[in-house]
Design a protein that fits this description.
about 150 residues, six-stranded antiparallel β-sheet, EGFL6 protein, ConA-like_dom_sf, MAM_dom, MAM_domain-containing
Length: about 150
C-alpha cells in the first residue's frame, strides 16, 4: 500500500491552478499532523477548489483501491467530489452533506484497463454555508479490490 497522507505521505499532490481557491493544511485536534481542508467561508457559492494526486507508478491492467477519510462539517458547506483522470466528465464519488461533524471513510475502486489512471482529483465546491469546512485526510492506495467493511 502507498501512504498518500499529507503529514508524512510519499505522494505527489498538486493544487490545480485553474480553479477558484486552494486547499489548505489544517491542524488536527489532538496533534498528529495535519489534513487538507477548505473552510466554508472561502470563495463564493459554486466556486471550486481542486487538489490533484499524481499517480505515476500504477501498473496497467490491475486494480487498486483508494481509501480516504473525509468530513463535511457545517450547514450547507458544499460538495466533495472525486474524479479519475481517465473519466473526465462524471465524478466517481460525491458527497454533499455530513450527518454530523465526524470523519467518515470513502473508498473508490480504480480499474486499470487500456488507459491508465494517472491522477485522482479531490474537488471541493463551495456551498451557501458560512461555517464549517470540507476536509480530506489519510489517503491510502492499496493494490487489489477494496476490502469490505
Amino acid at each position: 500500500s502507498v501512504d498518500c497522507s499529507f503529514s508524512r505521505g510519499v505522494c505527489d499532490w498538486k493544487q490545480d491552478t485553474d480553479d477558484d481557491f486552494d486547499w489548505n493544511p489544517a491542524d488536527r485536534d489532538r496533534g498528529g499532523g495535519y489534513y487538507m481542508a477548505v473552510p466554508a467561508f472561502v470563495g463564493h457559492k459554486n466556486d471550486m477548489g481542486r487538489l490533484k494526486l499524481l499517480l505515476t507508478d500504477l501498473k496497467p491492467k490491475s486494480s487498486y483501491c483508494l481509501i480516504f477519510s473525509y468530513r463535511l462539517a457545517g450547514e450547507k458547506v458544499g460538495k466533495l467530489r472525486v474524479f479519475l483522470a481517465n473519466k473526465k466528465t462524471a465524478p466517481v464519488w460525491e458527497e454533499n452533506k455530513g450527518k454530523d461533524e465526524k470523519w467518515r471513510t470513502g473508498k473508490i475502486e480504480i480499474f486499470q484497463g487500456a488507459e491508465t489512471t494517472n491522477s485522482v482529483t479531490f474537488e471541493s465546491e463551495r456551498g451557501k454555508g458560512k461555517t464549517g469546512e470540507i476536509g480530506v485526510d489519510n489517503v491510502i492506495l492499496i493494490s487489489g479490490l477494496c476490502p469490505e467493511d
